[in-house]
Design brief:
By secondary structure, this protein is α+β, with helices and mostly antiparallel strands. The chain has one domain. The protein contains 3 helices and 3 strands, in the order E-H-E-E-H-H.
Length: about 70
């Protein structure tokens, strides 16, 4: 995905981290942040926070875990 300025969008984890820290349990929208201008783009759909966090944990592994596999 690209921003209006032409920059690439990356998944913005900050709002999910804040939602987890605040103990929110409702559906959350996904946000994408432009790597060039910093604009934020909100997704049209919402997802349960627990589902989003579980999916992220499945696709991300800590650096320590990667090193122990070698």
């Amino acid at each position: 995905m690209k921003c209006h300025c032409g920059g690439l969008l990356r998944f913005d984890l900050q709002h999910l981290q804040d939602a987890v820290r605040l103990g929110l349990r409702d559906d959350v929208s996904l946000f994408w942040k432009c790597m060039v201008c910093g604009r934020t783009r909100k997704s049209d759909e919402s997802y349960p926070l627990s589902q989003v966090v579980a999916s992220l944990e499945r696709f991300t592994t800590p650096i320590d875990a990667q090193a122990s596999r070698r």
